Structure to design on (265 residues):
């Protein structure tokens, strides 16, 4: 009898020991006990703008590029999609501006047209310290035309600047704060040079230099210079060169310097 009771007591102790949770083992029903080595997984890190750019499709109907605004929103992702509407020389295009910190929906959608897909440029087009972007919309043998959208730090939006759309092959001189354009007419390198500046927040042409044939394929050539006077362009110089002469190259180069105003006697 005594032996049977001892066996029953020993069995009860073993059963209780089997049901107890070993020290340091985490239960799904509560927090880990002291001394546990369990560590929760850290939350996933948001992808960088460059990583997001590398994930974007670049093909016949898709494009993507980055614009480092230099403002509070930092670098933004811009994607482009060609629409189904096709014209004789261009096609509809949508631009989507994304904040890499929140890709749930675009910050901005821009509807436009282009005949030169995959040609974009990020540049400080108005020299205010914030980066803007442009997209080519027309291309010829030399002249190219772009639309540029200016970053507005206050509103967090890109705004189209129409005057920039009129400048052929624009080159942005940040140091001089000038935008120079060139539209070649023929193999003789006649054509139009323009120099634009921002005046009181408005982009205006301050000098236009035109070289063109006055008669026949080989000239003679006329060179006409217009400067901005009283809010408009006014002719300030005109000369002609005989057929076969290339003297207009040197004369045009002089007038490309805004400090030059002609020879003084």
């Amino acid at each position: 009898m005594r032996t049977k009771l001892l066996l029953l007591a020993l069995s009860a102790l073993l059963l209780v020991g089997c049901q107890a949770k070993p020290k340091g083992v985490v239960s799904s029903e509560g927090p880990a006990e002291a001394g546990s080595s369990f560590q929760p997984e850290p939350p996933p890190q948001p992808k960088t703008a460059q990583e997001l750019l590398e994930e974007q499709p670049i093909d016949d109907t898709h494009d993507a590029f980055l614009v480092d605004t230099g403002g509070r929103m930092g670098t933004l992702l811009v994607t482009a999609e060609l629409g189904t509407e096709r014209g004789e020389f261009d096609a509809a295009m949508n631009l989507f501006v994304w904040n890499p910190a929140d890709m749930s929906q675009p910050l901005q959608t821009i509807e436009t047209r282009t005949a030169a897909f995959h040609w974009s440029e990020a540049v400080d087009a108005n020299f205010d310290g914030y980066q803007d972007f442009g997209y080519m919309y027309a291309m010829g043998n030399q002249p190219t035309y772009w639309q540029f959208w200016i970053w507005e730090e206050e509103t967090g939006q890109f705004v189209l600047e129409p005057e920039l759309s009129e400048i052929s092959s624009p080159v942005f001189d940040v140091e001089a704060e000038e935008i120079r354009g060139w539209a070649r007419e023929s193999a003789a390198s006649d054509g139009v040079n323009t120099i634009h500046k921002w005046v009181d927040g408005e982009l205006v042409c301050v000098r236009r230099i035109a070289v063109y044939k006055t008669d026949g394929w080989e000239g003679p050539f006329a060179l006409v210079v217009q400067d901005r006077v009283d809010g408009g362009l006014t002719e300030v110089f005109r000369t002609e060169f005989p057929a076969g002469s290339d003297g207009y190259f040197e004369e045009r180069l002089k007038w490309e310097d805004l400090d030059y105003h002609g020879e003084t006697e």
